[in-house]
Design goal:
alpha+beta, five-stranded mixed sheet, homodimer, 6 helices
């Protein structure tokens, strides 16, 4: 397996949205009609923020996975910079082949190179497979992740 | 209670670090010697990132609370922008007077004004009082919060 990790380009957008939607929870959350307008706007905001790294993993020129890294400066824990990992997906036909593990090795190394002393993520309570994966990587399930949905007027 | 919410200034740094340390978990995490060098560097990084808002709550010219807001653009959930809340503290002599509630009302309104459709935070599993507070605000404890500590250098 020879994976390449690179910043997502505008041309990857439909592929990434497809990956996000190809998931038990994602299916309910993403826009099935695949009107990309809202995703396009979000992509531009990600591009404009140098503390965001939307990553795709590529094998033989094909996108096989995605995740987003956010680098978050903060005062707590002695002024620790945090790396946050969100929106992790591996293509359906590429699962259980070590792609996720390789993506996390890359993500953690990238956080370290950015000066982070903490990597954090939240995962839905209904994803036991993900929990086993993060436990095995050495992550500690020390926190409760709270979400509040806002309706925009 | 007439609280003012404003962006933290460099002159607030020692006060904010004092608030972060005045807490059961914070006491172990913050630098007891109060050498502010690392905090100063982190503060500059926060200042340089327009998606970070380090807030202090002031009453009668005195800082009584702090929290950090991070605005995070992302593709998932239909291109939802997230507001993340970290490092929440209310001064020891100001607790149980509604300061925390007012800070959260401000934080949620600010996230809404920034176009966020999701507000998220993680809180240590050992903080049952905080859990009750977030539950009462309508947050859903839907996720597990994982952390991985990195050693630099």
């Amino acid at each position: 397996m020879a994976l390449i990790f690179r910043k997502a380009r505008a041309g990857d957008l439909a592929t990434i949205v497809g990956l996000l939607a190809d998931d038990d929870l994602g299916r309910q959350r993403e826009d099935a009609s695949r009107d990309l307008t809202a995703y396009q706007r979000a992509f531009e905001q990600i591009e404009a923020d140098r503390n965001q790294f939307l990553c795709v993993a590529e094998e033989d020129g094909q996108v096989v996975g995605t995740l987003q890294l956010s680098f978050i400066p903060g005062l707590s824990r002695g002024g620790a910079k945090r790396g946050m990992i969100e929106a992790v997906r591996v293509a359906g036909d590429q699962r259980s082949k070590g792609v996720g593990r390789a993506m996390f090795d890359w993500a953690i190394a990238t956080c370290r190179a950015e000066g982070c002393t903490l990597v954090q993520l939240t995962t839905d309570k209904t994803r036991p497979d993900a929990h086993r994966f993060y436990d095995a990587l050495g992550f500690e399930a020390s926190h409760v992740g709270y979400k509040l949905h806002l309706v925009q007027g």
